[in-house]
Amino acid sequence: KARLIYASIEGLLQVNSTQLALKIAARDRFIILSSGYLVLTVTKLFENSFLPSIVSVPD
């Protein structure tokens, strides 16, 4: 009986660690996507706001 309980606890732990690994992977993917989006946005803003002023310098 003790072995059965131990086996079920082990099974639960295995499921939990799998879910945890998936959550961590999903979070990391989200962070990577967000930072990539942030870089794109900042680049776009930078291009839109600074390049025209550099280009249109009066002679």
What do these coordinates show?
There is one protein chain. The chain is an all-alpha fold and 59 residues long. The protein is 92% helix and 0% strand. It has one helix at 2-55. The model has no long low-confidence stretch (mean pLDDT 81).
Q: Give the helix/strand class.
A: mainly alpha
**In total, how many domains does the architecture comprise?**
1
- Proportion of strand residues: under 5%
Shape descriptor reads rod-shaped
Q: Tally the beta strands.
A: 0
Termini Cα gap: 90 Å
Uncertain segments:
none
Radius of gyration, Cα only, in angstroms? Answer: 26 Å
Following the backbone from N to C, one meets helices and strands in this order, namely H
Major sheet characteristics: none
Helix share bin: over 70%
How many separate helices? Answer: 1
- Give average pLDDT, whole number: 81
Short note summarizing the structure:
This protein has 59 residues and is an all-alpha fold.
Highlighted features:
mainly alpha, 59 residues, 1 helix
Break the fold down into its secondary structure elements and pairings:
Blueprint: H1 2-55
